Amino acid sequence: MCETIQIRDAKGHIGQKVRLRGWLRNKRSGKNLHFLIVRDGSGELQCVAAGGSLPADTMGLCERMGIETSLEVCGELSADGRAPGGVELQVSQIGVLQLVTDYPITKKEHGTEFLMENRHLWLRSSKQIAIMRVRDEVEKAWADFFYDRGFVRVDTPIFTPNAVEGTTTLFDVDYHGDKAYLSQTGQLYNEATAAALGRVYCFGPTFRAEKSKTRRHLLEFWMLEMEAAFFDHEDNMRFQEELILDTVRAVLENCEAELETLERGTEKLKAIEAPFPRMHYRDAVKLINDKMPGRGEEFEYGSDFGAPEETFLGEQFESPVFITNFPAHTKAFYMKRDPDDPETVLASDLLGPEGYGELIGGSQREDDLEVILERVKEFKLPEEAFQWYFDLRRYGSVPHSGFGMGLERTLTWLCGVPHIRETIAFPRMLHHMYP
Ligand code: 4AD
Ligand code: MG
After folding, report:
1. 210 Cβ below 6 A of ligand 1
2. Phi, psi of 8 (to 5 degrees)
3. Ligand 1 nearest atom to the CA of residue 164, by list position
4. Are residues 73 and 131 in the same domain?
5. Per mean pLDDT, which range of 163-167, 280-284, 352-356 is the poorest?
6. Does the pLDDT value for residue 164 go beyond 80?
7. Pocket probe mutation, ligand 1, options 358, 364, 414, 430, max atoms within 8 Å of Cβ
8. DSSP state of 365
9. Of 1, 16, 231, 385, whose CB has the highest number of CB atoms within 10 Å?
10. How many domains in the chain?
11. How far lies 114's CA from each of 105, 127, 408, in Å?
12. Ligand 1 atom 28: residue of nearest CA
């Protein structure tokens, strides 16, 4: 009898006979010899099938086995400096669960369209596995970060009765005869729970019906949103710096192998330092108009930055950069005006370095009942639907702030991948929903 192990634990079983179960990642064959690279999800291991010590039918099976054959292997583990990972297994027995000889994803270059159609299989590739592991690490780092600082996770609803972030980006659904929308943000609910618990966050799927087909947009993405009572705009930005630094630290510490698989150089991640630079929106517009190469016409004050402007601004700094003080009418209704510059709001977009675009959007919230009523009117939002939200300004209103951070945007940057579609298992994009 031998113990069944996971490949990640192989190093602890050197000299022992073990069994492992998985899939054939790769095969190299020599004279009367096969090097089988087996993966089981926890790692990869080189298994050596030698004709001298195995019956002819087993060697024949190894000969026929193609990539992604599912199998069970028994044999002794030995330390071997030449084997990837420093351990290998001398095969004494092989059982095939399913023989595969025609796996559609091969070593040759496949086009993106083909890979996206086969996303359910593409996920088994080394780089995709690495990205999913970094994703898991970031989710854990975020949960720990907030837990350690006394924040309470409160899950917010996905069915919502009204728009928050702009009416053009809503998916509507039939709510038994009423119209409901898929959540664009949990923020307003976070504001209510922050008045109960002080410091809260939510983390969940978020839906935007944007007709954008950029390498940064998903129609369904996961957003981390925090809300803290008594935080002002400055506290909010400092907290974002702390979160970014901790996320980078966690990934550098715990995902070394994954970053290597992804060929993601770590130098630029290690160079990030707080405090991050801060730039007034007005100065950002000026910088774009003075220095951004290839701009034909003047960037208009009051416009929203598009992907090219965000890329340009982010590339000017080694660390992420806060753009602050957007003109009030360009941003959401709930943002508080800057008392020193009342045309603008106490909000910030945090742009990632290396041109990865907006990672975080945050603001201090308007906490005055009269002002928020005016702003809801200005934005032509349904006042009725917001009565509960106004109550938060009627009963014990306090200064408070929060932000939202996109998980997939963050991963695109940390993993250094060219397109956001690789950072979620089954991406939902414009005109793309299969599988
Ligand atoms: O700037 P946004 O729209 O902010 C809000 O929704 C606020 N209510 C958050 C808050 O203050 N609680 O979105 C926040 C972040 C963006 O910075 C970006 O990282 C991500 O969510 N994001 C997207 N990620 C992928 N695809 C999209 N279509 C995204 N839209 C926003
Ligand atoms: Mg934003």
Report:
1. yes
2. -60, -25
3. 8
4. no
5. 163-167
6. no
7. 358
8. B
9. 231
10. 2
11. 9, 16, 22
12. 217
Give the whole-number percent of the chain exceeding pLDDT 70. 100
Query: Cβ(61) to ligand 1 under 6 A?
Result: no
In this predicted structure, the answer to whether residue 165 has a pLDDT above a threshold of 80 is no
| Mean of pLDDT over the chain | 96
Is the distance from the beta carbon of residue 359 to the nearest atom of ligand 1 less than 6 Å? yes
361 lines ligand 1 (CB under 6 A): yes
Alpha carbon nearest to ligand 1 atom 11, residue: 403
Instruction: Work out the angle at residue 75's Cα, subtended by the Cα atoms of residues 69 and 81, and round it to the nearest 5 degrees.
Output: 95
The predicted model gives 91-99 an average pLDDT of: 98
Residue 111 lies in a domain: no
Residue 166's pLDDT band (cuts 50, 70, 90): confident
Q: What is the pLDDT of residue 297?
A: 86
CA 101 to centroid of ligand 1, rounded, Å: 44
> Residue 83: what pLDDT?
84
Please state the φ and ψ torsions of residue 313, each to the nearest 5 degrees: -65, -45
> DSSP letters along 153-180, please?
E-PPPSEESS-SS-GGG--EEEETTEEE
Q: Decide which of 36, 68, 98 is a domain's last residue.
A: 98
| Best probe residue, ligand 1, of 201, 223, 419 (max atoms within 8 Å of C-beta) | 223
What's residue 179's pLDDT? Answer: 92
